[in-house]
Specification:
The complex is a heterodimer of chains A (about 130) and B (about 290). By secondary structure, chain A is α+β, with helices and mostly antiparallel strands. Chain A is built from two helices and ten strands, in the order E-E-E-E-E-E-E-E-E-E-H-H. A five-stranded mixed beta sheet of chain A has the order 2-1-9-8-5, with no helix packed on it. A five-stranded antiparallel beta sheet of chain A has the order 4-3-6-7-10, with helices on one face. The termini of chain A are far apart. Chain B is α/β, with parallel strands linked by helices and about 290 residues long. Chain B is elongated. The chains are: A alpha+beta (about 130), B alpha/beta (about 290).
Chain lengths: ~130, ~290
Amino acid sequence: MPLRLEIVTPEAKTFDSDVDLVVLPGVEGEFGVLPGHEHLITQILPGELVVRQNNQEIYLAVGEGFVEVDADRVSVLTDMAVNANDIDEKEAEEARKRAEKALEEKGGVEDEAYQAMLRNSLAKIKVKQHRHR
Amino acid sequence: MSNVRDIRRRIKSVRSTAKITKAMQMVATSKMRRAQQQALMARPYAMLANKILAHCAASVDQHTHPLLDQREVKKTGVLLISTDRGLCGSLNTNLFRETLQYDAANTVFVTVGRKGKAFLARTGKKLLADFELMENARLAQTRKVSGFLTDLFLKGEIDRLDVLYSEFINTSTQRPMVRQILPIKELKALQVDHRGNSSERPALEKPLLEPEFEPSAAGVLGALLPHYVHFEVFQCFMEAKASEHSSRMVAMKNATDNAKELDKHLVLQANKMRQASITNEILEIATAQAAMS
């Protein structure tokens, strides 16, 4: 039985195909999903999402979000999802610095958004560095 | 009395104006299409969010969350989404008229768009903050705005949050619209249709099976609600964008048509004058000849 993984962000449907295994960065630790999983709804944290498809592993950096797991379907709702190969580490690093700087200086007005930006860029960097090893 | 050369000069200027307005019309058309496309892209997100929301709402009996907190309204926050640029017909004027319904003493405004900011400054209303957004803003950017407003609500600085924006009905019709965002009155389904229109929103569907929740249904719901707010505000932005571009498109089309009309009129006038002067010259020559012989 195949497992359908779909990842949707407000801008696009980033991923939509059959996979063998998904590992998600859940709020209560990483967890893997195989076909036939129990119906589950949970939150995910910014981090690394690993997909195994045809004996190949695909790494994605995802933002904060929610997951609905079904027996044959995993639906991820998040504000960011980028394939590790598409991550520009320098850019992510710069984004991180910008966010950190903004958080130090401003304090208040746009905090929440910058924190999200910081978390997302950290997730990207983490995924990218993981790939190098 | 204007002479032929003056009229020719005017024709030239009218024609170049028509060229500019035509170009602006075309730009607005393509931008409008892009805005609609973007609204369409958000659709799977809205659908999945609805599904998760429906599951959570069905499993939680007591809806207690700070964002659902109905307080006596002492202070209202209004997010005014206007355009950065003019030349878009009566869009902003209609929008600004709606601000009159708010009592100036206990209303604070937050604006996006230069026109709205200038209007509030001119009329001496309380402007709390102004945000600048890029042309095709993504959720990550509009979230700065909605995050700021949610904070205000949670801190108790405002007791209600309305968004005032231009609703996109169709290419030729846009209407100012007030949507209450906070406190969340009722969990309605998020919806986006192909035009980025979100006026008709059905209630959430009741799920058949009850899933497991991790950590808990209430926990997931609590985490989802801020996203719900972010997305609703994002939707308002998309609609406002689609309205702006279609309104500008129509305004520029009218301008182009008017310029063409004027051009026709002026060309006719110029030709008449040219003819008159030629006739005059012939007459003069004829009279001179007659006098000589």
